[in-house]
Amino acid sequence: MARSGIPLSEWNGSAETQRLRESIETFNEQSARQSAEMITPTRWICALTILMLVGLVVQILLAVVG
Prior knowledge:
By secondary structure, this protein is mostly helical. The protein has one domain (about 10-65). It is about 85% helix and about 0% strand. It is rod-shaped and about 85 Å long. The chain starts with 7 loop residues before the first helix and ends with a helix. About 0% of the residues are buried.
C-alpha cells in the first residue's frame, strides 16, 4: 500500500482529511447539544409517570378501603 497511491504523509495532512475531521467535530458538538436538550423532556416524562403511578395507587386504596 505504501508503494502505490498517495503517500501517507500527504494523505494524513490533506485538506479532505481536515474537512472530515472538522465535520466529525461539528457532528459531535451538535449531538452532545441535542442529547443535553433531550434530558429535560425525559425527566418530565419520568416525573409524570411516577405521578400517574401514585394516582393509580391512591385510586386502588380508595376502592379497597372505601
